[in-house]
Amino acid sequence: MKEKILVWSLTVVLLAAAWGVSKATLTDDAATAPFPTVAALDEPVAARNLAATVTDVHVATRVTDAEGWTAEGTWLVVDLTAATVVTQQSATLRLAELVIGDRTFTATDRGTTLVGQRLFTGVPRSGSIAFELPADALTGSGVLRLGVPSEASPNDVPLDGVIELTVRLDELPVEVDAALDENGWAR
User: Secretion signal: which residues (predicted)?
Assistant: First the structure.
């Protein structure tokens, strides 16, 4: 009888240990996951090869760029300045996404925005990025993620640093019309 109790006790201990190991084990993509750097509105922040300052976040039902392009819908517009820190080789603002719950939205490449624009070391560029969202997405919080490709893998999303800014979506007022900042050198 004591042997059965000992065997069952040992089985429970081993199962608990196996469960603990499975919870402590990193996911398969952990080796290539970026290191997030938390940002705040109007505060400069740097993550490896990207330095950025998000100056404004607003929602509009119509956006217009400096060249006359216009689109209607539900738009989240982010005004920012960005520069590289280490190298400008293959340095473009390639990662610009908004994560809301389990949904991820990529910044639009329509109109004139900073998405895909070449960045320079130590010389900030200013402009806007915009996300076209479904109307029901403007509740709760979202996380804005910005990054440039790493020098080791310029064709991939960043592997070493990403800037993340939490946006409280339901606190943002909805404007009728928003102009995307013209791309240019920051002042």
Answer: 1-24
Query: Which is nearest to 77 in space by CA: 50, 55, 99?
Result: 55
**Sign of the dihedral through C-alpha 155, 98, 67, 81:** negative
CATH code that applies to domain 31-185? 2.60.40.1240
Instruction: Say how far apart CA 167 and CA 99 lie, in whole Å.
Output: 10
The pLDDT value recorded for residue 78 is 97
Is the CB of residue 168 less than 8 Å from the CB of residue 58?
no
Q: Would you kindly state where each structural domain of the chain is located, as residue ranges?
A: 31-185
How far is Cα of residue 11 from the mean position of the Cα atoms in its chain?
44
Q: What pLDDT is recorded for position 31?
A: 65
> With pLDDT > 90 as the criterion, what percentage of the chain qualifies?
56
